[in-house]
Amino acid sequence: MQVARRLEQIGAYLFADLDRKQEELQAKGVDVINLGIGDPDLPTPAHIVDALMEGASDPRTHRYPPYSGTQAFKTAVARWYGRRFGVTVDPDREVLALIGSKEGLAHLPWAILNPGDGSLVPDPGYPVYRSATILADGVPHPVPLLPERGFLPELGAVPAAVARSAKILFLNYPNNPTGATAPREFFDEAVQFARKYDLILAHDNSYSEIAYDGYRPPSVLQVPGAADVAIEFHSLSKTYGMTGWRVGFVCGNAAAVGALAKIKTNVDSGVFQAVQHAGVAALEGPQDHLPQRLRIYQARRDRVIRTLRSLGWQAADLKATFYVWLPVPGGMSSAQFAATVLEKTGVVITPGIGYGARGEGYVRISLTTPDDRLDEALRRLTKAFGRVPQRGAAEGSPSARPAR
Ligand SMILES: *Cc1c(COP(=O)(O)O)cnc(C)c1O
Fold first, then answer.
1. Model confidence over 24-74: pLDDT tens digits?
2. Contact, 105 vs 231, CB < 8 A?
3. Per-residue pLDDT tens for 177-229?
4. Strands 166-171 and 118-123
5. For a substitution probing ligand 1, which of 105, 145, 204, 249 has the most ligand atoms within 8 Å of its CB?
6. Which domains are delineated in the chain?
7. Smallest CA separation from ligand 1 atom 14, residue
8. How many Å apart are CA 125 and CA 141, to the nearest integer?
9. Do 177 and 323 form a contact (C-beta atoms < 8 A)?
10. CA 122 – ligand 1 centroid, Å
11. Rounded to the nearest whole angstrom, what is the distance from the C-alpha of residue 202 to the centroid of ligand 1?
12. Ligand 1: which atom is nearest the Cα of residue 237?
């Protein structure tokens, strides 16, 4: 069988290779610790699980849900936007329930692009922006996120011809995989840029609640008039530890939200109403679990960064997300380094090249692994890569030489 050409453009070689290595090691009996995936180990709060069960025992939820989301869910979303960001959104025209934000992000190019139209995708970035553009027969244009600019794109450096050919600008702050954050002023600039080139600014704000040291990430919709050009994707996955539940939402520009809703009526039939009922409980119920969650991530962040720095590795400070974006030490490629770490320690980390060409030279370490496993991973890294006290040997790193 010959698959469609658009599918052939989406390679998964690197991750597949890493998976294969992991399986080989596991088959040999190695105790593999996975710091590669961003999937919270902390369970969904009990009151949300209770709401799901309550919803599931109501036979009215067993039927098809309303396409755009239940009134209760969309209203809860609008109220949450008001409380959290001071932004007013119309639950009827400017809110759409999603089967996780990934679903909405993946369908958006179908709703906006004609074949050959461009989208501007952050590089490195969440791979869905690029692959979804390709699946819609669009052309993804990588926009570099560089460390010297705090991993914010230089929008003014996008060639005018490229910007004119594009119809979507994807942004994501707090950012996966770099952990970078964007100030409000950056969104002002992005909204202006989207206006100038008549783009839909699709902001992925999945990590808005995963932030530390008192930092509160902004919403693009806080920019006055942003809803003329912008939509914002949110997820209950990371905030409430609900990755398995598949529920998220998008807010903002009514025409774009409506176009995405039209795609969805032809593709899926919405989110199980019991899950939406639980989503209401998540958004409107007690939020005290969130600071608890953040304290745990923050403590892990501190241990990971301290350990990496003790190895002489240049881990930057992290204000938000649960990802440490580490420059690869010692001039290896990101894939070589991830493979070396896996072979020497049984610890899986993600090579940055998996997020785009500008991800080369980095690896991503996720903080969503239980404390004891994370600490074991850090012990193994220290043992394998720790420096011997006296340095200055002419060749090789100390840990690469045979012990004497
Ligand atoms: C996890 C993640 C998502 C997907 O979240 P779901 O709501 O579970 O689909 C979207 N964007 C980014 C950047 C993510 O890291």
1. 999 999 999 999 988 999 999 999 999 999 999 999 999 999 999 999 999
2. no
3. 999 999 999 999 999 999 999 999 999 999 999 999 999 999 999 999 999 99
4. parallel
5. 204
6. 5-43+289-400 (3.90.1150.10), 46-284 (3.40.640.10)
7. 206
8. 12
9. yes
10. 15
11. 13
12. 8
